[in-house]
């Protein structure tokens, strides 16, 4: 059957070869094996279920989280001459009725539905009356509560599947999944470990950058100005930020659109279309914008503030360069943004376990901003990507031409200070002790009596805090799982203290004050 699959690839899509992972996924589905496919954005996930759907008899049911996503996919298939449709709440009941009739008569190769559809007995009944080729979960991470976009309705499809009498092969597809999410999807859908196809997440055409200590609005205006006709997305955390930045750019004559959940559906649609059709060059938006947007020529994605975790960051940043051309992913970092993200987690209705997990993920995002290693590698490590490519050579850290200096002794000072303070305080307090601050809190804990008090007075408190963040990012210190990050020594800290492990840092990242006198 794989020959047929090859033929269809050429005949319908005009491609000669499969991309990595596609053939394996297709073969497994044709063998009736439930399959989980993990591929980066733009990796070609749609073909993975469409070709088996075309090869086999019957209708494929595709579960999709967004109406716009369904429409785009159906339009794409229809334009290839493939019988496809969607059934969702955007249709009148008469339209829905007609599509159900056509579905029962086997007129479609593909039908796209929202997960809620599985809650209606009439739909299950219909599925039981037709010949099914496969069931595909698009954006399968929505099924896991550990995913960054959990949708309870996705989860409730799982028990509904047991009501389907002749259950065909199930395909789950996603671009973003941590091990925890992969395990969760696998367990929920009972997919065998051997049937997980993970091509890795590397996107070679993307360059990752972190900008610190610059005026954000200035940076963006200059950046956009240098790239006149290039399409880009700027993500902010709040609607207010969208409005402010939108006004700022519009006043400067930039061709800009805005998108957030506070706008009417009409306004959002208009903005989206203008951006997709290149009438507007820049889109300023909250994370409400983007899922299911297939715009291939986005040349850059700027994050105006810290995203909540690496999963969302990589998914949003990954909307750049879907066409494979070189593109930038830039994160504008400032320490204050951390507070907003913490506040958002704190205010949310999640239970304590979930919150703890979110703080942990946020910390990994913060570490990304402090690491001195390759940013691409950092992200791939986060996802436990086993393909382990070389450092990218083009991110902020790879490109930094600065030399590295040995900071082992300084690290030892920090670590012993954290230890002496009982591993009960955050970076700010530790920095104060090392600086020898006269802060009242220091007195109340009698920290001025510690041997490490004032040990690094030659540095500014800010540099000391940065250095501590760097040690966290390097995995020497950890911040525990509490809301207030409490510094604790990791295993590798022992090695540093014993002088068995050295700490290298970009020269000049933390500086001793020039005027210090050592009397
Ligand atoms: P994903 O859903 O994984 O983000 P898509 O399925 O939308 O990716 O595919 C991304 C792009 O890659 C599409 O334009 C698609 O036509 C193209 N593509 C997919 N498979 C192949 C292939 N085997 N050869 C060439 N192009 C492909
Ligand atoms: Zn790099």
TrEMBL record:
> Where does the Helicase C-terminal domain start and stop, copy by copy?
218-366
Q: What GO MF annotations does this protein's record show?
A: DNA helicase activity; hydrolase activity
Q: What cofactor is needed?
A: Mg(2+); Zn(2+)
Which Enzyme Commission numbers does its entry carry? Answer: 5.6.2.4
Name of the top EC class for this enzyme: isomerase
Query: Is Ubl conjugation set as a keyword in this record?
Result: no
- What reaction is this protein's catalytic activity? Couples ATP hydrolysis with the unwinding of duplex DNA by translocating in the 3'-5' direction
Q: Where does the source fall among the domains of life?
A: Bacteria
The question of whether Zinc-finger is a record keyword is answered with no
Q: Which family is this protein grouped under?
A: Belongs to the helicase family. RecQ subfamily.
> What's the protein called, per UniProt?
DNA helicase RecQ
Task: Identify the species of origin.
Answer: Aquibacillus rhizosphaerae
- Provide the gene name from the record: recQ
